[in-house]
Write a structure and sequence with these properties.
This protein has 675 residues and is an alpha+beta fold. The protein has helices spanning 7-14, 25-41, 55-69, 143-147, 159-176, 181-191, 205-248, 252-267, 309-317, 337-343, 378-445, 451-482, 495-509, 534-550, 609-619; strands at residues 21-24, 47-54, 74-80, 93-96, 106-112, 117-124, 150-156, 271-276, 283-285, 288-291, 302-304, 321-323, 346-356, 359-369, 491-493, 518-522, 530-532, 557-565, 568-575, 624-628, 635-642. It contains 15 helices and 21 strands. It binds adenosine-5'-diphosphate.
Length: 675
């Protein structure tokens, strides 16, 4: 039954004088609506035949055809079925032609009454690539493209052409629905007739007016589409420029500066702000600002957040919030926010969160100032949201980079440690080892060696073995401390007792010095107990005393002092030795730091002593630092230990696992015993 022939071609064949024209879909829509309106407005029942190509195009107009059906019983609607469109005679005649019928490529509308005749017979000439219907994507929202679909054909008021077009179409209808033969014969009789001479068709002016109205509507739709395309393009350009900045810079300050400027300019805001903050922050410092007009700057200001209802709402909803008239909006009353609004002349206020993994990391704000409040439309809000998302990316990227830098620094430090370890191993380990080896080889190969020389060899080997032992011991100690593999036994202790133990250890250690350095300890009797691990406290004191003796030439003096400062006891180990230059006061605590470098050292030692001290002091929450007036001016090493809390006394909390007070002295002096 289906035909591949075209009604337009049949018409052109029959009336070769006709000159087909190109029509855009928007024009055909306007023409069709004007023709349908002419039918609806007229009192004269017409014959009306409409071919919609496909069911979906007909569905958009079905309501109009239900109304037209009330005007005439000679109404025929043709379409290729897609879902439920079928042959029917319910309200009017519907003809569901085969989808591969030539009819599916054509747009027809023929309206013939006794007072007018008009017809539109066109063929779809859209290039297949731009025909998104044939691509099978009916849901695609491309109104602009749809309106530019092109058709070629005839639109005319010529009664003869209209009658022939109707005849061709009625024949097609008959081929699908032969049961309508009688009704179609009536239509032919009533409408496809020659009008008597002197007949004047209806005044075309109302038709022309309707047509202009529809064309205007079409134009307005196009304008809207262009506007939305322009906004979309502006948004894309803005987002692109910020994305490019993000790609080119890892510095969030650069990125935020570009973002506030571009966004502020694009939206014509008086003030655009970006600042970093968390949901719990009381205030934020305005980091980046764009000023679009002569309003006062907020840059660097402390911007209240917690008592700002707008901020609270942003935190609650995790989306942009705005007030159009900040001067009168009741939400901003009574919180001090209104005062801000007045001070900074904010007329309209928009706050959009910068969120990363559901956490607030910053805010983008726009202010419109002066008299006239600004109404935000959805496109502006989408744009600000898109920028806020990019700003979030920049913040996270910068943080990731900062972490990476920190990691790099740690790696570099590790690398330095490793190199230092190699240097230490090369010198500190190899030197004593080779001395030991030479001494032992000489002793075994020369049995006749003089007893004094033998003794000297043995002493030298033993001394170097001791250096080696210390190095290995310090290294292992620091590793244990740094890896947290130490069980701390914090307990109330008498500092004097620890100082005594450290002094006796140092004296034993330096008993062989030709001219021992004088050491004086001045620990006040009424000093409170301290909360620390005794063994490690003695270790710190011993290492500091050892250094003080090591770096002080006779006849120098080393002193140990202590005093209470609030909830801490501050211990001082001072010497009159070679001193430390100001720029090295901090680095002396670094692992393997030695002023003269590992390879040139004369004093022995590992360069680990102060690093060990720092780890130990940190374990009880204390601090350690060095002071010195400079080279050859002596050094002072200070560290703090918390005062212990004993029953009946108020003071700082004992650390978890802290020990008990182990005794009480006879004369009211408290005593603690070291393990
Ligand atoms: P070591 O003493 O084993 O070299 P330390 O970690 O104890 O290692 O000390 C590191 C460095 O700090 C020393 O090599 C020295 O240069 C400097 N230093 C430490 N104590 C003193 C002090 N009392 N006077 C001068 N310099 C000191």
């Amino acid at each position: 039954m289906s035909k591949t022939t075209s009604v337009l071609e049949d018409l052109l064949q029959a009336l070769p004088h006709l000159r087909p024209q190109i029509y855009f879909k928007s024009s055909l829509t306007a023409l069709s609506h004007a023709m349908e309106d002419q039918v609806l407005a007229g009192s004269d029942p017409p014959l009306l035949i409409a071919n919609f190509q496909r069911e979906r195009f007909y569905r958009q107009e079905a309501h109009r055809y239900r109304r037209i059906a009330q005007k005439t019983n000679q109404l025929y609607v043709l379409a290729a079925p897609e879902t439920d469109f079928k042959h029917s005679s319910e309200l009017y005649e519907t003809v569901a032609f085969d989808p591969d019928d030539g009819l599916s490529q054509e747009w027809h509308l023929v309206a013939i009454s006794r007072s007018y005749a008009t017809c539109l017979i066109c063929q779809d000439r859209s290039a297949p690539a731009s025909d998104f219907w044939s691509a099978g994507e009916p849901g695609l929202d491309m109104p602009a493209m749809d309106q530019t679909r092109r058709f070629e054909g005839i639109w005319t008021f010529d009664r003869q052409v209209c009658c022939l077009a109707a005849e061709l179409l009625l024949n097609r209808i008959l081929s699908y629905r032969p049961e309508l033969a009688e009704k179609i014969a009536i239509a032919r009789q009533q409408f496809l007739i020659e009008m008597p001479p002197g007949f004047h068709s209806a005044d075309p002016e109302p038709f022309a007016q309707r047509l202009v109205t529809y064309l205007q509507v079409g134009q307005y739709k196009l304008l809207k589409t262009y506007r939305s395309l322009a906004t979309q393009e502006r948004k894309e350009r803005l987002v692109n420029s910020i994305t490019t900045t993000i790609r080119q810079s890892l510095n969030p300050a650069d990125i935020f500066q570009v973002a506030v400027r571009e966004l502020g300019q694009a939206l014509g805001a008086c003030r655009c702000l970006i600042y970093r903050c968390k949901a719990t922050d009381e205030t934020a410092t305005i980091g980046h600002e764009f000023l679009g007009s002569s309003v006062s700057s907020l840059a660097g200001q402390n911007w209240p957040l917690q008592n700002n209802p707008l901020f609270q709402e942003v935190v609650r909803r995790r989306e942009g919030v705005w007030v159009e008239d900040a001067q009168t909006d009741s939400h901003l009353a009574g919180t001090g926010t209104r005062a801000l609004v007045q001070k900074w002349e904010i007329a309209s206020w928009l706050m959009v969160p910068v969120v990363y993994q559901n956490q607030l990391v910053g805010i983008v704000e726009l202010h419109y100032c002066g008299g006239c409040p600004h109404e935000w439309d959805s496109e502006e809000l989408t744009l600000v949201n898109a920028i806020a998302t990019q700003v979030g990316v920049a913040i996270i990227q910068a943080e990731a980079y900062a972490n990476l830098e920190e990691l790099n620094e740690q790696l570099e430090a590790l690398d330095r440690t490793r190199s230092n370890l190699i240097a230490i191993t090369g010198h500190e380990l190899r030197t004593p080892l080779s001395t030991i080896q030479i001494c032992l080889e000489s002793l075994s190969s020369e049995p006749d060696m003089a007893p004094e020389l033998r003794q000297a060899m043995l002493n030298s080997a033993l001394a170097d073995a001791d250096r080696l032992r210390k190095l290995v011991q310090d290294f292992l100690t620091l590793s244990r401390l740094e890896s947290g593999r130490v069980d701390w036994n914090l307990e109330p202790l008498q500092l004097q007792e620890c100082v005594d133990l450290a002094l006796s250890s140092i004296r034993a250690r330096r008993s062989n010095d030709a001219a021992p350095i004088q050491i004086a300890a001045q620990v006040p009797e009424d000093l409170p107990l301290v909360q620390a691990d005794g063994e490690w406290l003695v270790e710190v004191l011993a290492k500091l005393l050892d250094n003080a003796c090591k770096f002080t030439q006779p006849p120098g003096l080393v002193t140990v002092q202590a005093k209470r400062t609030g909830s801490q006891v501050e211990v001082l180990v001072a010497d009159t030795g070679r001193g430390i230059t100001p720029e090295r006061l901090d680095v002396v605590f670094d692992r393997f730091y030695q002023e003269e470098g590992a390879l040139r050292r004369t004093q022995g030692g590992t360069g680990l002593g102060l690093a060990i001290c720092r780890q130990i002091v940190n374990s009880w929450g204390g601090k350690i630092w060095a002071t010195s007036a400079g080279k050859d001016q002596g050094s002072q090493f200070h560290f703090t230990v918390p005062v212990a809390v004993v029953s009946g006394e108020t003071g700082p909390q004992s650390p978890p696992g802290g020990g008990r007070n182990r005794g009480g002295g006879g004369s009211g002096r408290r005593r603690a015993t070291l393990r």
